[in-house]
Amino acid sequence: MQGVIKAYDPSTGIGVVVRDTDLAEFDLAPDALEGSVFRMLRQGQRVLFDLEGSEATRLRLGSEVDMGTPSFLTTAGDSEPA
What pLDDT score was predicted for residue 55? Predict the structure, then answer.
């Protein structure tokens, strides 16, 4: 799944990620950063993650294709400005 970091406290490791598809919020699991390239997270940072129960786990970076704009943000019939 892909989402955006809503909040993260580096001193406690407590954080929240918002899933792109439905804007559902998930707490970060205590070990969410273990084995990842992340040592710190910032608000608004885009990530890929897995769910275990109601917690986000296994945070990682995605490729450009993985991190594309979710389809729910586009509206049929929109046209580009002339």
Answer: 97
pLDDT along the chain (82 residues), means of 10: 93 93 95 82 92 93 58 51 48
Nearest to 59 by CA among 76, 36, 29, 81: 36
Domains in the chain, ordered, with CATH?
2-64 (2.40.50.140)
- For 78, counting Cβ atoms within 10 Å of its Cβ (0-12 exposed, 13-18 middle, 19+ buried), the class is exposed
**Number of residues written out for the chain:** 82
